[in-house]
Amino acid sequence: MPGVDDDAIRNTGGQVDDLAMAMIDAAYDREADCRDQICDALFDLGKKRPALVLSSAYSYLKKHNKLQTGHRVVLLQCMERIIKETLSELEPPLAVDVIKQAAMELTVSKEVMPEWQTAASGVLVSLGARFCDEVMDEMLQRFQPGILPHFFVIQTIGNLATSNVYGMVPHLTAVLGTMLPINIKFSEAIIDYCANTDKAPDPSVSKERFEQEIGSAFDVLFNSWLHITKEMKLRVAIVEAIGNMCHLMARDKLEEQLPKILQVILGLYKKHPEPIHVTQGLCSVLDAVCIEGNTVLEPNLDTVLGFLFPQIINPPDYKNPQSIKNHNEVLRCLAIIARSFSGKLTGILLSKLESGNEKMKIGMLTVFKHLINAATESMQDKQEVVVSGLKMMLSEQNNKLKKVFAQVVIAMAHHGYLELEGGQQMIEFIIKQSALKNDPPGKKSPDPEYVSNQALRTMCDHVLQLLTTTVEDMEHVLWPYLLELIVPEQYTEAQGVVCKCLSHLATKKRKEQTEDYEIDFETQANIPKPEALIARLMVLAGRPQNGRNRGIHVLTLMQGLVPNLNENLVELWDTVIPKLIQYLEDASKEDTWNQKNWEDLSLKIPMYNNYPDEKNFMYKCLGVITRKSTKKDFVGKHLDLIFGSVKHSDQTEREGCAIAMGFCAASHLDAVLSKLESVAKTELQQKSSGLFSFMKGEKSEVDIERTKATLMLCYGFVALFSPVSLIVSRMEATILRSIQPYFANVKDAHNLELRRCLIRTIELIGKAFDPKIMKKSHSFIPKQKFISSVKSYMQMESTTSLTNETRALAMNACSTLVKLDPRLNEAEELDLVKTSIDCIYPLPPNGLPVSKKGKEESYDKTLEAEVLMSATFDALHDLLKEILLKDLTPNGLNTIFKQLSKWFLSIEEYERERSLTTLLIVENFLLENMEPSSNNITDFPTECVILAKLVPRCTDPNIRVRQMAMDCVQCNSMDQPDQMIDALCTLKERIERKT
């Protein structure tokens, strides 16, 4: 029955089926005539039964893999004849089977067997007239990029293109896309072979041998394929192939076609989103043209640069590898152009660098860096021009540009540019960047490519070290030139890296005893003299952690340089400096403080219970450590430990505890204030004084007062060391509220310690609000209340003797408060002066109480009283000077004089002497500080009053008082020459002779 059997044979069901198979089997008869007759018979049968004959032949070939080649050729030729006659009658499934078998026959043997493979190709070409897509599917599977295709695959595709133009053209994109890389590889292979003829088996092979063939291929690609192809990817591939072929073309033909080639290539930039392949093609063309100083490109140079520069100006997308490759390829194009046009290109780059914007300048500097590195020979004779031209960048202020220029300086250093005139200026530029200060605090720049001063400084530090240690030719540029940059103040921040580089050079040259190690300071006049270098290096070494931990490098330089500085220092520095370096190295190894060590130290506090000075120092150390710590638990634990272990009856320990709290408050203000509030609530509450209260360990009233004193002093130092940005708010909200209740009820004798601590707290708070510290004017509202409290404490003091420092402390506190705003009015000033004077002048001459007859005070007590008396009067005079500073005029002096003048009439000689001494000090202070150009000197309405009260004292019974009065009169009248006043000098001399 008719149908398709298991072997894909289209049987008819009749005897003809067996007849067809018999003829196929016998087709390769020994006799040629017989073979021809069988083939003709098969052909005739095939014309009538094409499906039967073709399917039978297909099945026979598929089954018999080892069939003789001649037999296969006969059958394939017969099939081709039948197909040509019956193509329109063939069913697609049968056609596909035959195509697959023919394609297998075509390529089963890698060797070329023309008769067999030509027959198979004929079958495919004949079927391709109707089934072109199916044939090309099989061919393209055997025609892949990067794989050398079979010869007959190429031939089949070519024949098919000729026989079926309309069916083949749609497949040309794939075909050409595969063929172009082959052309490129062929060109690259020839170029590589000719470039290495010394290794080649046939050295006679040259590029000229291929000029004709390459020229023909170029004509086809450039004149035909490029113009008929609309597919952009294929056009780019053609350009890339043309670029490689340019190396093998005849020179005259290349020069003739160059304008057209460049026009086509540059035109693709506007149409193709990925320019990398276009740039690669352009680069190959330029590489072929710009050789041996050939200037054939000159008419088109500006056009080419016009397409290349925009790609350099726009930075690459570093997330896109293709963008980075294109950027590098553009730079390569410019390096190739430099072979023939280095002078013109350098001029263009410098011109654009001078007049361009930021992006333009960055692009041009990037090109310079690449040319210096990649076009060394081409730029050799342009080095001086480049160094001179780039000097315009030395005054640049833009950090982005300075960063790129620093990279250019590195490139110049590696290629000898910095050895020319102007090279040292480039080194100085790098050091200027190393001396940059940190960016001012504030908003960060929104620019993602922003270059901070810190980043640029770090980079330039590395640049200078790199030049010093890795570029041998830079030694004679840097040595001894870098010594010129040691002393100038503007490079102080850079001295760490400068000294590091110099120490490397100096140590190396001293060890090797090189000829240029010894410095002649007379001939090299720009280098600072040895004395200046020694002084500068000593100062730099004095702060080893500044300048990015410069200490070790400064010391190493001092040791390496010492024979040049002073021969007498060599032995000393060689002995001492290594020990200092070791000390700094050991210290630097402990980059972070060891919390465990300090915790161990805190456990040893009981060891110092009987050593208040040592305990004071330990408290201060713990205060510094808590300031550095960022761990809240650690800080809280040690605040408890410090306050819990202090002996409140000892002023030295109390002071150490208070200072420690202040140190800690510098970083943990709120934690310290919270601790002090907690102490006030838990330890300062008066307990019941019942019969058994002592058995419960309750504190006595005296203990509580002493604890209060410690607490108040803590508040003072906390205010002093607190951050300026926080002190105002915390003062009003916490500190004042906490200390104000303790200013009352301190009249009892056992309150003396608390009184002194309150006074010191007031002084410390006043210092915290000093305008010089606050950096701005601030109205200190509690000022008058504080002064009133201090005055009341002074008034509490007995005038029969001077036994403590309360008066001095009080007046020091008032001196501090007087500096603050708002200023005291005249009445307040008068009252303050009066209170201060009244509590001091009545004191006995030596400060000691009047002793009973026959009883003398010990030497120690007398000496202590003298010291207290001197300190108290110094405090008074300082206070009066501060008051006078608020009004440096005769009117200001008159305010003080009003309170002093009544003491001129005292019956006690020492009181009269004290008042006149004070007046003389105040008058001298006024004369020293008053503006001489002002009218205040001549405008002195109360001068007569002052003189009237002073003159009687010039005849005082006490000679010392008499002398002081004359001094005051002379000082008061120094602005106006007077014979009577001048005569006082003679009178004083007579008095002194009499005494």
From TrEMBL:
Residues 910-971 form the Maestro-like HEAT-repeats domain. InterPro entries: ARM-like (IPR011989), ARM-type_fold (IPR016024), HEAT_MROH2B-like (IPR055408), Maestro-like_HEAT (IPR048465), Maestro_heat-like_prot (IPR045206), MROH2B-like_N_HEAT (IPR056282). The keyword Repeat applies. Keywords: Repeat. It comes from the Eukaryota. GO terms for cellular component: cytoplasm. It holds the Pfam family HEAT_MROH2B_1st. Residues 249-603 form the MROH2B-like HEAT-repeats domain. PANTHER family: MAESTRO HEAT-LIKE REPEAT FAMILY MEMBER 1, MAESTRO-RELATED HEAT DOMAIN-CONTAINING. This is Maestro heat-like repeat-containing protein family member 1. It comes from Mytilus edulis (Blue mussel).
